[in-house]
């Protein structure tokens, strides 16, 4: 029976099927975004200062969940690498399967994506100074890997297969402005992360260490108040930079897939920035600059 179906028809059917899968994946991303936002507002994802054993005054985590979260952890650096590497390793093979993979505009856009993930998966884990007292929860690793596999699929297929870019795209306002926004966001993100890394390096406890009367003193000694540049305006310029980066990506790709990534990043990082901000206010009650906002200067 199957042998009677002309080969071209089966190929076309497969493409139609994948188009349906791709479009469903995009809609799924948009549908999940409010859930990510709501979950993040309810309880910050339990890694870093919001990890259950940090005891650091995040809006935390009920006692019965604490044991489960804490049981399964891995060393932080290796976890960051594992979490982010799907985007690094799968972009090229998935991209190359696309019908427009030979064209210059999608190739340059894919290179931008890879630039971010070479840094995030390889450079950042090597540079970071994770707390020696706690590892990274496997549950966050698993959700991060799932997200990154989903995301690299939609971005790569959009770039080289489902969205077509004419050669003139490279001089379009969307591409030029989008690339500038992307690079500005990346520089901001890397700069802010570098400041945080340098705080951990030199963290011995000084005027900006948490107040000694803080109930969370023992676990938050390794944090200091970052100062200077954008840190004078917002608590989380690294998250702000990341959001700007993916806004630039959505603009440069001018695609629904790019928009989905941007929206998901906002829904993930904005609530986390609010939780970080709250954490500083609790742990540095008298000295945290009150004029500083969480993530959007002068606004939020
Ligand atoms: P954080 O700002 O929470 O932490 C960054 C690093 O700096 C951690 O190692 C942290 O230690 C340390 N640190 C933070 N604040 C201080 C301080 N006051 N004093 C000393 N050390 C400090 O960022 P994340 O770990 O959540 O994220 C890291 C990077 O990954 C960021 O660039 C972020 O934009 C990106 N990211 C992107 C996401 C996306 O959806 N695209 C999602 C999540 C992250 P510790 O871990 O012990 O707190």
UniProtKB/TrEMBL annotation:
- Gene Ontology biological-process entries: brassinosteroid biosynthetic process
For this protein, what reaction is catalysed? a 3-oxo-5alpha-steroid + NADP(+) = a 3-oxo-Delta(4)-steroid + NADPH + H(+)
Q: Where are the transmembrane segments?
A: 20-40, 80-101, 107-124, 136-154, 174-192, 246-270
Q: From the Swiss-Prot or TrEMBL record, what is one GO molecular function term? A: 3-oxo-5-alpha-steroid 4-dehydrogenase (NADP+) activity
Record's keyword terms, sorted? Brassinosteroid biosynthesis, Lipid biosynthesis, Lipid metabolism, Membrane, Steroid biosynthesis, Transmembrane, Transmembrane helix
Q: How does it sit in the membrane?
A: Multi-pass membrane protein
Principal subcellular localization: membrane
UniProt pathway: Plant hormone biosynthesis; brassinosteroid biosynthesis
InterPro entries linked: 3-oxo-5-alpha-steroid_4-DH, 3-oxo-5_a-steroid_4-DH_C, SRD5A/TECR
Domain annotation 3-oxo-5-alpha-steroid 4-dehydrogenase C-terminal: ranges: 135-300
Spell out the GO cellular component terms annotated for this protein, sorted alphabetically and separated by semicolons. membrane
Lineage top rank: taxon: Eukaryota
Identify the EC number(s). Answer: 1.3.1.22
Cellular compartments annotated: Membrane
Pfam families registered for this protein in UniProt = Steroid_dh
**UniProt keyword annotation of Glycoprotein present:** no
User: Do the record's keywords include Transmembrane helix?
Assistant: yes
- Family affiliation: Belongs to the steroid 5-alpha reductase family.
Q: What does this protein do?
A: Involved in a reduction step in the biosynthesis of the plant steroid, brassinolide.
Name of the protein described by the UniProt record:
Steroid 5-alpha-reductase DET2
Query: What organism does the UniProt record list as the source?
Result: Ceratopteris richardii
């Amino acid at each position: 029976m199957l042998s009677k179906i002309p080969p071209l028809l089966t190929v076309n059917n497969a493409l139609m099927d994948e188009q349906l899968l791709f479009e469903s994946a995009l809609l799924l991303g948009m549908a999940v975004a409010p859930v990510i936002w709501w979950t993040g507002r309810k309880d910050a994802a339990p890694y870093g200062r919001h990890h259950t054993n940090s005891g650091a005054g995040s809006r935390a985590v009920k006692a019965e969940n604490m044991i489960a979260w804490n049981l399964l952890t891995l060393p932080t650096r290796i976890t960051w690498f594992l979490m982010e590497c799907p985007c690094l390793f799968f972009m090229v093979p998935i991209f190359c399967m696309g019908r427009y993979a030979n064209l210059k505009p999608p190739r340059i856009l894919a290179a931008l994506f890879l630039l971010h993930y070479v840094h995030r998966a390889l450079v950042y884990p090597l540079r970071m100074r994770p707390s020696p007292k706690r590892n990274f929860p496997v549950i966050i690793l698993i959700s991060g890997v799932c997200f990154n596999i989903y995301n690299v699929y939609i971005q790569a297929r959009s770039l080289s297969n489902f969205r077509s870019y004419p050669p003139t795209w490279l001089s379009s306002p969307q591409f030029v402005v989008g690339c500038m926004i992307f690079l500005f966001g990346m520089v901001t993100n890397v700069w802010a992360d570098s400041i945080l890394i340098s705080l951990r390096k030199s963290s011995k406890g000084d005027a900006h260490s948490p107040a000694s009367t803080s109930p969370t003193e023992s676990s938050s000694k390794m944090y200091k108040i970052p100062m200077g540049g954008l840190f004078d305006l917002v608590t989380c310029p690294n998250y702000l930079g990341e959001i700007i980066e993916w806004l630039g990506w959505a603009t440069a790709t001018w695609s629904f897939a790019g928009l989905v990534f941007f929206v998901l990043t906002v829904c993930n990082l904005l609530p986390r920035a609010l939780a970080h901000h709250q954490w500083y206010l609790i742990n540095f009650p008298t000295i945290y600059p009150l004029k500083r906002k969480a993530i959007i200067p002068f606004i939020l």
